[in-house]
Structure of 3-dehydroquinate synthase:
Amino acid sequence: MKSSLICVAGTEEIITVNVDLGCRSYPVYVGSGLLNRPELLSRHVHGKQALVVTNTTIAPLFLDKAIKALQQENTEMTLETVILPDGEQFKNMESVIKVFDAAIEAGMDRRCTFVAVGGGVVGDICGYAASSYMRGVNFIQIPTTFMSQVDSSVGGKTGINYRVGKNLIGAIYQPKCVLVDTNTLNYLPNRELASGIAEAIKCGLVKDGKYFEWLENNIQALLARDPIAIAYAIKRSCEIKAGIVTLDEKENGIRAILNFGHTFGHAIETSCGYGNLLHGEAVAVGMSFVFWVEVVLLIVPDLTIFITATGDTIEANEELQEGEELLERANLEEGEEQV
Amino acid sequence: MKSSLICVAGTEEIITVNVDLGCRSYPVYVGSGLLNRPELLSRHVHGKQALVVTNTTIAPLFLDKAIKALQQENTEMTLETVILPDGEQFKNMESVIKVFDAAIEAGMDRRCTFVAVGGGVVGDICGYAASSYMRGVNFIQIPTTFMSQVDSSVGGKTGINYRVGKNLIGAIYQPKCVLVDTNTLNYLPNRELASGIAEAIKCGLVKDGKYFEWLENNIQALLARDPIAIAYAIKRSCEIKAGIVTLDEKENGIRAILNFGHTFGHAIETSCGYGNLLHGEAVAVGMSFVFWVEVVLLIVPDLTIFITATGDTIEANEELQEGEELLERANLEEGEEQV
């Protein structure tokens, strides 16, 4: 995984992580104040129409900045906005329809660009709408939560919840770029920051012991929003994710390792009702459950453990075995990298 | 474009046209009685669950045969069916939702296969649903109309009509295989056969003068459903389409040549109301309009011609110029092939 650090005189550093997927490759830009660097976005917006999708929480904070960044070097750009209600419970077909309708009413053509400004929910809705509007239009991610910056904005998974299922309808659809302005985290509630850190910890656990150790040693700096620690955690998490996505974009095998703790996590999240437990919190509980089962099985190897949370019963042993096989393959297929 | 002819002792010939798209490559099987050859389908169905999507016209004719073909070599296969109402007016989000609901109710997982048995409308709905269900599941096309056999089942374009727009929502999503049993045409109304022939003529016009001549000379044989003529027209049309799709899967350039006559055709089709004019009939009118404009412009070169059919006004001259540029590129980028 190649990353680069570009220092431009008089400006902040920009870290670039490349997601290598042949003709679908794209950069993840990470840095402080990147919403003030319109040249980063203008490289990736080729048409003259853009649709910004955001939510009621994010709009007052960053919508104007995002619009300015999109229009500054592209003065002929016509721009429309969809402001969705905030919350996982709105990650549904109705929200996707709202995005389609706004695009149609604005007369957006095949060369338009959909831009997600917000957390994972906004990115998922906007990305899935982009994958389906006119059989696929350009798409840019501007994630504003730590969770979406370290995880969900990278790798192209988009989707909505449908009836009983989380992310049951969706597409693997890669953005043209991901722009992470770490200043957006200044407005993030502590609980949401901690939830995102859980996904960063997952990255360390599944792929990079040294990064896991680094997270252990720097957890206070992350919680205190130290800009250098935050930028490094985003960079390293994105590198790990990009490396795995490059090997298995469509999740036919190894990419499933990134779901570590998620089977149990999703079950817990659903049983608590969406919005009561944050995604990262559920994943953290899920991961700790995996370790608890591992320890129990060391003591009582023949035990079969079932977990029931949503009506579906999961056999813990089977899940663990699959996870272990994937972990083994992850380290065989891509050498562990130095931090 | 490589095609092959396989003769198996005691059975009919199978023509195979390969659509070369790297890891998304797939075969188009063409022949008489191929629904009686379950080994062709079983090569491409890897999971143990299949969802057959068809309509009320096609179900009494071919559903049992298709189910038998899917289950014969895969006896553990669980199979569900969605029978949609017949007609372009049902190519909408409600039909896609019906497919999702059937898949969810049957507990279909990521390894399931969606199978479209019908014409272009069924293929479009089923294909788009397959592209979005669990972020994309396997998909097989069994086209039963001449239109879908020579054109719409190949190349991965899927989509539904949405509000004012034809195919406004959809995906480019390739099937795992296309199985064309030419016996299905025995039940096709003459008007629909003629509509399909219009798309075959378009293939000749845009890419292969010799094939166009062949169509001129064999039009009576095609209308009389001569099996050899029918099979050859399907083969050659699929080869031409596959060759162009290989160069430009996502229609960023040259693939637009396959829309020859379609800008005007769609306008006429929409203004007549869906279902009153068949797609191929509209395309035929559209193509003949293009030639009429060409002739008029030879006589009065400075004339600017506008056509208004659906409220949108199309400038004919601009359309023609774009079409001519594409035609030139089509012949530069892929050498003309021998029939």
